[in-house]
Amino acid sequence: MAEIGSLPLFLETAVAAAKRAGEIIHKGFYQTKNVEHKGLVDLVTETDKACEDLIFNHLKQKYPEHKFIGEETTAACGTMELTDSPTWIVDPLDGTTNFVHGFPFVCVSIGLTIGKVPAVGVVYNPILDELFTAIRGKGAFLNGKPIKVSSKTELVKSLLATEINLLLRIGKRLPVPQMSYNILMANCIGQDEFLKVGTKRDKSTVDATTNRINGLLFEVRSIRMSGSCALNLCGIACGRLDLFYELGFGGPWDVAGGALIVEEAGGLVYDPSGKDFDITSQRVAASNHHLKDAFVKALGKSA
Description:
This protein has nine helices and 17 strands.
């Protein structure tokens, strides 16, 4: 199809948008932030909104016939729909809490799906000036140089990244036709329950989340939490990290760019249960081929 032949041009456009948004992030990183709350602890800044507007305007000028999904616009509207049409999926500032606190793991994430399959991925950290890119079938790159996942074969020698998302359990799976923005299958490895997005820091919820991490500590070398799903995926892609999983992240904008970059770096992206990855599920795991089976088993034991 025509869109596939245009992938290099799509990548060029996405990189230009990410770099322009990165300039705004870099400038704002060293200034006093005007911060709003999307929940008890979830933050959004003027920079998030400005970057999303800039990126969408840039992309829409080039490709007005394409569809667009963004974190801030979806949060405002409450719904999203991913179709087979070419769709740009954007997180204008992944790692907003890091941004607010001056912790330099923040990035722009831009992914293009065609037929609901990621075809172009861009993740740019303007503070460290690291640009991760990929086109399906063409490999993955960091600042223009090819990258590959690690070659680790044992969990005990592997570095694991994850994030803590404390979510409210609201009941068993329901036969709904389409998942809305604030309802997801997230906290249970076996996907048998729905959860509602939002921080809930009562003891039982915290214990359930930390007990899983406690169990995994016996299986791996060490654990890291960077505060950015997209950058964690890129860490897998370039071999800095060996294992990654996250349950209950915000939406497809967190993974649309990074998931393709992992795959094009020779890695695997999958559901933490071991099933196929679903970009809309808000559940992700990633590793090299050698570690997948053992990692899925360890995740199941720790649930």
